Structures are given as C-alpha cells and as structure tokens.
Amino acid sequence: MTENQVSASPLVGVVVGTRSDFNMMRRGLETLRIMGVPYAFEVISPHRNPERLAEFARAAGEHGIEVIITAEGGAAQIVGHIASHTTLPIIGVPIDASPLRGQDALFSMAMVPPGLPIATVGINNSENAAVLATQILALKHSRFREILAHRRMAAQQRAEGLQRDLLSEYPDLCRADRTAPFSYPHAEGESEAITPDVPDDSQRIRPGAIWTDRPPDVQSLVSTPLPHEPGLARPPTPAPPPRSLTSLVGDPLRATESGFSESETLGEEETPAPRSASILRRAETPVPVTERPTEVRPIPRETKIFRVDRTADMGDLMDHAMMVLLEGGILALPTDTVYGLSADATNEAAVDRLYSLGEGEQQKTLGVLIHHPDLLSSLVTDVPAELEKVIEECWPGAITIILPRREDTLTSVAKTDRIGVRIPSDPLCLGVLERLGRPLLVRNASLQSASPMTDASPVIERFSGEVDCILDGGPCLGSAGASTVLDAMNSRFEVLREGAIGHEKLKELLGQKLKDSSEDSE
User: Fold this and answer.
1) How far is CA 127 from the centre of its chain?
2) How far, CA to CA in Å, does 346 sit from each of 147, 154, 350?
3) pLDDT by residue (tens digit) across 352-374?
4) Contact indicator for 149, 316 with CB cutoff of 8 Å
5) 69 exposure class (CB count in 10 Å sphere: 0-12, 13-18, 19+)
6) Which of 425, 384, 390 has the alpha carbon at shortest distance from 509?
7) How many CA atoms lie within 13 A of 164 on its CB side?
8) Taking Cα atoms as reference points, which of 372, 357, 393, 369 lies closest to residue 465?
9) Where are the beta strands (DSSP E) in 211-286?
10) CA–CA dist 283, 273 (Å, integer)
C-alpha cells in the first residue's frame, strides 16, 4: 500500500468523554485539519461504554490509525482503558473540568506505569497534542515533514519579528552595548560613580553583551533611591536645583493635593511656595507637553521562493502554500493568464494586507477563486439557471462571474452586494485551492502596471520582501492578459471585460440572455 493510499484513511484517532471535553479539543481538531492530517473522532464515555472504548482501541490499528489522542477531565480513565487494549502511542490532553482545574487529570495521565507509550501535554493544550501527533506521523509519512518545517519556520519568524520590534522600541534595554555606572549618595551629599571593571570573555554573564572602552553615558543613567535600612542614619537628600516661579507654576507634577510644604529658592530670598490650588488657578498658559512622533518602519519579510517543476509531484509544495495562506500570509502564484497575489478570503487581517499592497484601491472588490462549483451556494444568494452551461464549459477557466453576495459572507472582501467568483484551470493554483478548502482572494500582481506579469521574474523583483511566498511556475499556461468578467447581477448579462474567453463564445452559450456590445454603445 502506498503512502497516498494510507493517507486516505484516518491516521489519528481522537477520543473525548463528554461534550465539554470536545469543546476544549476543538482547537486541536482545527490544527489537525490545517496540517492536513486525516482523523477519526469518537465520543466514548469510559464509565457508560467501556466495551465500546475497548473495541475502538483494539480496532484502531486495523483502520489505519497510528496515533491516538484522548481528552478528558477528572481522573482521566480513557487513557488507561485504551492503553490496556492497544500498543499504539497515546497522547493525553488533561481538561480543566473539576475543582482541581485539570491537575488531577494531568497527574493521572503522567503517573501511568512504565513501559506504556503514553505522553501528556499541558492542561487544555489540545493544539500541542495535534502537533505532537503530526510529528510522530512525520517519522513515517514524509509529506508531514514540510508542513512541520514550515510551522517551525513561521514561529521563528514571528519571534524574530517581535525581537526587531522590541529592539526598535527599547534600544537601551534590548542592547547591552554599554555599562551604566551605579551611583549612591554619600554622607557629605556628594555622589561618586562606580563603574565595574570590564571583565574578560570568561567572566561574561549576560549573553550578547558588548563591552567597549567607551565611557558610560551619564545622561542616560536612571537612578533609583536606595531603601533605608533600620538602624542606619538616613543619608541626606541632595537639594534640588533652583527653579523659577514660572517653571514651578507650569509643572503639574509638583502640584499635589496637600500643596508644597518646602520652600523654593526665588532669587536671593526664600519665599514659601503657595498651595497647589492657588498655583493651578494662576496657571494661565501651561507648559505644552509634546510627544515625540513614533516612526513606524515596516519590517522586511523573508520571502520564500520555490521553483516549480510541473512535471514532478507538486503535493508537498501545495501543502506548504496552504500553510502560508492559513497562517495569514500572502502567496504569489500563477493563475490562468497572469500571476496573482493571493490571501485567505476568510482571514480579515490577510485581506486587509493584500488590499494595502502597491498603489491599488483598498476598497476595490477583487476576484475570489474556489475549487468547485458546490462552494457557490455558501458565497452567493442566487445562481441563474442560464449560467449552468457557462459553468460547465468554461470552468475551470479564465472567466470571472459576478453574482449577488450573501450578506454575512466575506464582508472584508467585498464592500458591495456583489462578488466575483472563478475556478482556475492552472493545476498548481487549483491544487492549492483544493487543499485550502476556502475561497482565495486574488489580486493581479501587475497592480496598476500596464504590462501584465505573465512570468515569475517581475513578480520576484517587485514583491520580494513584501509577500511571504512566491511559487515560480514559469510562464502562465493561458494567454496573456486577464480573465473575462461576466456580470450576472441583472436580467441581461453583460461582459464587463473581454479576456481569454471571448464574447462570441459567451453568446453561443447564453444566447439572448447576453447583451451585445452594440447595445452598450447605444
């Protein structure tokens, strides 16, 4: 039996005891689905149906299951029941379903007898269980290795992006490129700065610290008062520098509820400072507080570029592209006529990012790609019967049909009551759509450029560092230009843009239902 045949059957068995356990397991099930891991799901109570649970454990291997995930709160009896009837590896997910907040289930799973292939994850952490199960499967099925590698790479990129953000926002704290002196007050009211000796390489404690011979920047020193120890004389506080009455009035930090009890030096005479209420009443023009504008610098993205061999198996590459899209990334790939920039149409953040690329209009409605006509019913409210011939003969193909959009569907994609839908014929693009299982928002990579991008070279040159992944599939398989756009919103259909599928072909399929170009000119 080949790997493809094996992967058609469930590879992971998921067992929960109650509905509440299922609710905590939903994130793990979604993770398995995203990574393309087929699984079988069962709700079996070890108290009410112990025989059924034992039967599931004994037959799991015969049905192709290689890993079992269990989720249960309380004493977590499911793990022990299944382990007594199978030698398959088991991953337990303790659920917070008792007054002990899941700790009893965690201990019950962790304290199994030695020799049983049972592992456990954190409380309610079903996502980690799904990832661990996929890692076990990857030892045998190579198609999961690329998915896991991409997941690790995406996590690393997020961590590096966070580090760059923090370094940009807090350079003095995130970069140890100098040593600040430590100062403390003396009895005489003076301060002495003590700078530690520069250690050699063997004495360095902080990883990444950079020691230089440059003297410390005293202006950047932030001093913290030392706590007063009982039995010791409190060191005198150095007197503040002289301040004028104008600066005193304009300083809201000095105005307290109880007023000023200390005197302020005004020229040569000492005058008790007035109460805060009178100060605030006399403050006619407060000192303006100016905020330094925050400079937002875009972080360059690491664009992965893959050269596609269309004569070889593209399954792993399509799985990688699917993961890019599901994680909110932007993917450039060939469509039927030109290269397009795509994003998961159900991910609002990814849609906004796609609209913001280039100089295009953000509110402009773009085309949505699907992999099967059955998905139309979930996107649009009505598909005219006259379109059946067009859908049957032109899809997959380079024609976009504008139809009435469902009110509660893809609101971030289309701001109007209409949406353009198409099924592409390019095998690479269609394969990514089939794995994604969701509508794909696609924007012409040419943007407002006059020359269409029918090859990957200008796409790589233009969008490297802006998109997450580019699939270089060579020249587009269809003719140059864009797809035909057919407006089916009104009683008479209209060709808004003639492209790969000409007006004559549509007239042949639609007859009098299609408006002629002469009618438009009139």
Assistant:
1) 15
2) 21, 20, 8
3) 999 888 655 444 556 899 999 98
4) no
5) buried
6) 390
7) 12
8) 357
9) 263-266, 269-272
10) 14
